[in-house]
From TrEMBL:
It comes from the Bacteria. It comes from Collinsella ihumii. This is Aldo/keto reductase. InterPro entries: AKR, Aldo/ket_reductase_CS, NAD(P)_OxRdtase_dom_sf, NADP_OxRdtase_dom. The keyword Transmembrane helix does not apply. PANTHER family: 2,5-DIKETO-D-GLUCONIC ACID REDUCTASE, NADP-DEPENDENT OXIDOREDUCTASE DOMAIN-CONTAINING PROTEIN.
Length: 285
């Protein structure tokens, strides 16, 4: 397994398994299948409502805890000094572990600076091995890196062949922050799985469209967490370490970049307005 060494020296697998939009019960079965298929990084979040399922599968897997890398995220309604720290402890309980390998702030909204101070406290107290953020654009990432005592080690953002995040990636590298992708298959948007270029390149290597796309992102130094509820597809997504793309193939894939979101546009005021009203309601309930 290829690994990324984070700024604090922690080694993180470059390829993992994501459980977004999978219910708790199904998550337990899927994570068990993923671990059996070779995955050692599992990505979940408080907002997904399936941390318990992840923890149950980890416990039943028979794989040593130190050989697994668990990622979770603090939801915005849990931001605030004291509240964020307490939510991390709840995540530990649901996951059934003594330490989370990487904890992220899920969104760059609300009082994320106060939440970050709790993240730093959790890191200092050994509740987490590494801390980072998710969905922070380059300016928000620069903001938190500038004022934090401990800079984020990872930023997880929408990244795929149709939005390769070149500018954001360069910013992350300049700040010493590892780039992690969510939605590496663009959630199927823009005809992803039938893209003729990716299919042609895949045919040349005996690989699928998804495998080509994952290999491309890995070559860019991006951590990826493809999701599937089918074990055969999990195994296929994991089988990307036995081939190399040519320079010409990488150059052609680079041209697929549309430079915009295909999944969840954080610059869409109406979309984000709805999200923030939902979060506000959660905080008031």
């Amino acid at each position: 397994m290829e690994c990324k060494t984070l700024s604090n020296g922690v080694k993180m697998p470059m390829l993992g398994y994501g459980v977004f939009q999978i219910d708790d019960e199904t998550t337990e079965r899927c994570v068990a299948d993923a671990i059996a298929s070779g995955y050692r990084l599992i990505d979940t979040a408080q907002a997904y409502g399936n941390e318990r399922g992840v923890g149950a599968a980890v416990k039943a897997s028979g794989v040593a805890r130190e050989d697994l890398f668990i990622v979770s995220k603090v939801w915005v309604s849990n931001y605030g000094e004291g509240a964020t720290y307490d939510s991390i402890k709840r995540s530990l309980e649901l996951l059934g572990v003594e330490q989370i390998d990487l904890m992220l702030l899920h969104q760059a909204y609300g009082d994320y600076h106060a939440a970050w101070r709790d993240m730093e406290r959790a890191y200092d107290d050994g509740l987490v091995r590494a801390i980072g953020v998710s969905n922070f654009d380059p300016t928000r990432l620069l903001d938190i890196c500038t004022f934090a005592c401990i800079a984020p080690m990872v930023n997880q953002v929408e990244t795929h062949v149709f939005w390769q995040q070149g500018y954001a990636h360069e910013n992350m590298e300049n700040l010493g922050v590892a780039h992690m992708s969510w939605g590496p298959f663009a959630e199927g948007a823009n005809g992803f799985f039938s893209n003729p270029l990716l299919a042609q390149i895949g045919e040349a290597h005996g690989k699928s469209v998804g495998q080509v796309a994952l290999r491309y992102l890995l070559d860019l130094g991006v951590i990826v967490i493809p999701k599937s509820t089918h074990k055969e597809r999990m195994e296929e997504n994991f089988d990307v370490f036995d081939f190399e793309l040519t320079d010409d193939e990488r150059a052609k894939i680079a041209e697929l970049d549309c430079g915009r979101s295909m999944c969840f546009d954080h610059t869409d005021v109406q979309l984000i307005g709805g999200l923030l009203q939902m979060i506000k309601g959660q905080m008031q309930s």
